[in-house]
Amino acid sequence: MSTHTYRGLGIDPGLAATGFAVIGCLKRGGDLCDWGAITTRAGSASHMRLQEIYSAVRGLIDQWRPDVIAVEDVYVLDRYPRAAIQLGEVKGVIALAAAEAHLEFMQVKPAEIKRALTGNGQAPKQQVHAAVQRTLGLTHRITPDHASDAAAIALMALSRTGHYTW
Q1: Which of 73, 164, 152 is nearest to 117 (CA)?
Q2: C-alpha 3: how far from chain center
Q3: What Rg value do the Cα atoms of the chain yield, rounded?
Q4: Which residues, in sequence order, are bridge partners of residue 31?
Q5: Mind listing the domains of the chain with CATH numbers?
Q6: How far is residue 62's CA from residue 59's CA, in Å, rounded to a whole number?
Q7: pLDDT tens string 87-111
Q8: Model pTM?
């Protein structure tokens, strides 16, 4: 961990599954330190699910000591207002965890991530996942998909802060 000059935690928010990825900057390139998904049980009360996500994010912050946390600035269709509320709540507990740890917090738009990694703001998910894998020099695919999305978010945050270029 001490070889990283800067570390970013990317988060793909969701109530059922919140993807995460920690990327550490090296003198040249980046290091995928940790990734996965925080999953919550569908039958649980939403405040308990939010508490699980909050606790897991705090655990990641304590373990990896990131310099920046970034979440995808998600959008939902007008016909799914409940989803917008749930995602707002998830983003809120993540922002709270970042604020309590005095970390920089940013939101990045999906089209911005896609454009930066692939050159196309409308790129399909698989193209973005391949770009993340190539950028980090990985020989394996990052799974689950939420974690790969989170790695793309972390790369974008590290790029925005001037600590990573590809």
Answers
A1: 152
A2: 22
A3: 15
A4: 24
A5: 6-160 (3.30.420.10)
A6: 5
A7: 999 999 999 999 999 999 999 999 9
A8: 0.94
